[in-house]
């Protein structure tokens, strides 16, 4: 039975990486409504919605086609860095809650992106 699961998962831990990435994207997309900054930061609302959808789509790609998509792990790290600096670039005088929210989302994205890159490097075929 272990061999069957190893073949099915392709030697990678799906729940460890892909699930949290999807949940992070989902939270990023809905965070403007959770933290109630839809009227004070309309540009950041659109930004977080689009970035959340993009992160969620990356997670689905990691799940559906891991061999091809794990090369985008570094792009996911770059998205995390962008989420950290976005409140000052996209936003208009964001308050501390908005800034902390985006910093946490960005830091988690960078950490999960590094974890995805590590998983990809570990499962890559050796010459």
Briefly characterize the structure.
About 80% of the residues lie in helices and about 0% in strands. With about 130 residues, it is mainly alpha-helical.
Can you offer a commentary on this structure?
There is one protein chain. The chain is mainly α and 127 residues long. It has one domain. Helix content is 80%, strand content 0%. The chain is built from 6 helices and no strands. The longest helix is centred in the C-terminal third of the chain and has 28 residues, at 96-123. It is elongated and about 50 Å long. The chain starts with a helix and ends with a helix. This is SPW repeat-containing integral membrane domain-containing protein. Residues 18-113 form the SPW repeat-containing integral membrane domain. Keywords: Membrane, Transmembrane, Transmembrane helix. InterPro entries: SPW. It holds the Pfam family SPW.
Identify the notable features of this structure and list them briefly:
127 residues; mainly alpha; SPW repeat-containing integral membrane domain-containing protein; membrane; SPW; transmembrane helix; transmembrane
Distance between the termini: 29 Å
Order of helices and strands: HHHHHH
Number of helices: 6
Number of domain units: 1
Proportion in β-strands: under 5%
What is the radius of gyration computed over CA atoms, rounded to a whole number of angstroms? 16 Å
Flag low-confidence runs: none
Question: Which geometry do the CA atoms define?
Answer: elongated
Portion of residues within helices: over 70%
The major sheet is characterized as: none
Report the count of strand segments: 0
Class inferred from helices and paired strands: mainly alpha
Task: State mean pLDDT (0 to 100 scale).
Answer: 85
InterPro entries: SPW
Domain SPW repeat-containing integral membrane: 18-113
Pfam family, one: SPW
Organism: Streptomyces caeruleatus
């Amino acid at each position: 039975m272990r061999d069957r699961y190893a073949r099915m998962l392709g030697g990678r831990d799906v729940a460890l990486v892909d699930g949290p990435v999807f949940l992070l994207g989902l939270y990023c997309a809905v965070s403007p409504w959770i933290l109630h900054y839809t009227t004070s930061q309309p540009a950041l609302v659109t930004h977080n919605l689009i970035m959340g959808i993009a992160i969620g789509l990356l997670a689905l790609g990691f799940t559906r086609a891991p061999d091809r998509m794990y090369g985008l792990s570094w792009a996911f790290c770059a998205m995390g860095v962008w989420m950290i600096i976005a409140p000052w670039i996209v936003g208009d005088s964001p308050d501390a809650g908005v800034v902390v929210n985006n910093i946490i989302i960005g830091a988690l994205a960078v950490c999960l992106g590094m974890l995805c890159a590590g998983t990809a490097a570990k499962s890559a075929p050796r010459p």
